[in-house]
Amino acid sequence: MNKNNSYNCFVCSADFKKIVERKDKYTYYKCEKCALVTIFPQPEDKIISEYYDGFLFKKPEDNEISSRKKIIDKDVDLIAKDIKNIKKENNLSLLDFGGGTGFYANSFYQHGYKVTLLDLDKQTCKYVKSKFPEINVICTNPMLNAINKKFDIIFCNQVIEHYKDSDKLLNTLHSLLNDNGLLIITTPNQQCREYWFRPTWVWDYIKLTSDNFLQRIKNTFKLLSDSWLCCDPPRHIYAFNKKNLSKLHKRNKLEVISVFTEYVTTQNYSLKQHRDFSFKRIQSVLKIIFNIYANLGISLLKFLDRKNNWGNNLVIFSSKEVKK
Ligand SMILES: [Zn+2]
What we know:
The chain has nine helices and eleven strands. By secondary structure, it is α/β, with parallel strands linked by helices.
């Protein structure tokens, strides 16, 4: 907190303005200049490490494994094509940073990359070693322990928003890249406008702010003008947008190659949602109606979004600047 009793944005130093309080101890803030969204107080390290102790590890059921593999293989086909447009060599080394249960890492391996997965969760690492023995696994906290290896490509999928110190994370990623190495970061997009068509998602965030009906209505209007969707402590500390994330990359000597957003119904860098139209029981009717609404609405939004700012998932490609 600064001397004016407000907080400063760590990306651009402008003041944060308060958006809304939650029922717990956290309050949402948004930077007046770069629109970074975060919470104060920031969760203590102890709370964060307790939260991650085995918590992230959601082991897929045996009957889900083959369908998940299939979906991710298809997505990685497209990601590998995007990589090939930038890095044409074969046999490249790839680090899946914070790679979780290893499905993306396995798929990259099938696409001919020499793959290493890094995760800090011991249970997760054990699972990957047993399921995908061909993947090299590093089980450590990369912010505390140095890793004496470098890679041609780093895939860092839905990770950066979890870290309190984004500069330190980008600096670490920079140090793990070979010269001209490629970094791919994905994260939820703060500028996302899909909330008009995903009411259950909005509800997940509104119910955390109040128990009072009128207050909840008021907060819904606040969310439509100053969205704090995706900022979800102690899990997600920040919600970034194209501009502030690019700025962070540049100041950590990562040259931005491209930055774009993807929509949740058609995205390839994270799992698609609202695509299930199967009828299993009577409650499925409601799900199908919601999913039709989401798909139609998001198609319209996509059509109107001429600058590609409003998708749910933000993807940024950058390369390690080499001193000349
Ligand atoms: Zn800012």
